[in-house]
Specification:
The protein is an all-alpha fold. The protein has seven helices and no strands. The longest helix has 47 residues. The protein starts with a helix and ends with a helix. 23% of the residues are buried. The model has no long low-confidence stretch (mean pLDDT 87).
């Protein structure tokens, strides 16, 4: 092999190495930027779910919805229960979409919501099913919230917590 060919082969190998390194760095940057979006979103939704107003609304659902006619569609609930139900359910629906789109890590939704979201779903479920029946469409109303609750229910919050918070050695 002459010098010219050897230089061409060396240049080709160097360019392949540079391509691989730049691709690896770009992928790392994408992963970092994706996770960077999680913090502000997670802080925002964790803040809301802990406000006195949200907690009052949610706890109001737990006590008032069992007193309502079980045949009512969700949007026919009387005021102010309907407003509380819409506010709380819309919050959980939004969290569900953020998880589904990968904007928020599923663990960031499961751990802080693993008690409250299923309890709220249990309180509103019959009214949601009635609303879906009225619309004649099983996916027309709060289906992402239902999916989030299914995900939470099938997860092991204790194991997730241990995995997330175990001390690094």
């Amino acid at each position: 092999m002459d010098t010219s060919t050897a230089l061409n082969v060396a240049a080709f190998i160097a360019s392949l190495i540079a391509l691989c390194l730049s691709s690896a760095i770009a992928l790392q940057q994408i992963r970092i930027s994706r996770h960077a979006n999680q913090l502000p979103v997670a802080v925002e939704f964790l803040w809301k779910v802990r406000t006195a107003e949200f907690l009052r609304r949610e706890e109001n659902l737990w006590t008032e919805l069992p007193k309502q006619d079980k045949d009512l569609p969700f949007l026919d609930l009387p005021e102010p229960v309907r407003d509380d139900a819409q506010e709380v359910a819309t919050f959980y629906q939004t969290v569900s979409y953020l998880v589904a789109l990968g904007i928020v890590d599923e663990r960031l939704a499961i751990l802080p919501l693993h008690y409250r979201a299923p309890k709220t779903w249990s309180a509103i479920q019959q009214f949601v099913m009635n609303e879906r029946a009225r619309r004649d469409d099983p996916l027309s109303f709060l289906n992402a919230f239902e999916h989030l609750v299914d995900t939470i229910s099938s997860s092991n919050a204790s194991a997730l917590s241990g995995e997330l918070f175990r001390r690094r050695r």
